[in-house]
Design goal:
Layout: H1 2-18, H2 23-30, H3 39-49, H4 55-66, H5 72-81, H6 86-98, H7 100-111, H8 119-131, H9 136-143
Helix pairs in contact: 1-3, 2-3, 4-6, 5-6, 7-9, 8-9
Length: about 150
Amino acid sequence: MATTTLSLTGRALRLLSGREHSRAELERKLAKFEEEPGQLAKVLDTLAAKDFINEGRVVESVIHRRSAKLGASRIKQELQQKGLEPEAVAQAVDRLRASEVERAREVWHKKFGQPPADASERGKQMRFLASRGFGGDTIHRVVSGGDDD
């Protein structure tokens, strides 16, 4: 039994060594290795008590990795999928929205670099930014060249 606990702990630490994971993510990934009910919860409680599992770090990690390429709505969706507290997700999204136009402009510039020549190209650019999770107002300002921040 002790080896299973070590195995669960080892698996959890291996996952955490790659990147930050939320408790819900670890539960989902490690549930199939649990041999006794409650065993996984104990392991995760221990890791949380030692601050190996920290939701604040998970939020910051996702924002750091994804904000240069994605809009607030896509990042919000990713944070929600990780099972994070709604309040933490809302605060992160509020912070992201403050820099949304600037980040969208960077993404647009890397991909296209010049204003659309016609309606077809304009639609393509707008769809690209929408697929990255940027909002409609932001997309319109960036594609129209509205530099009036």
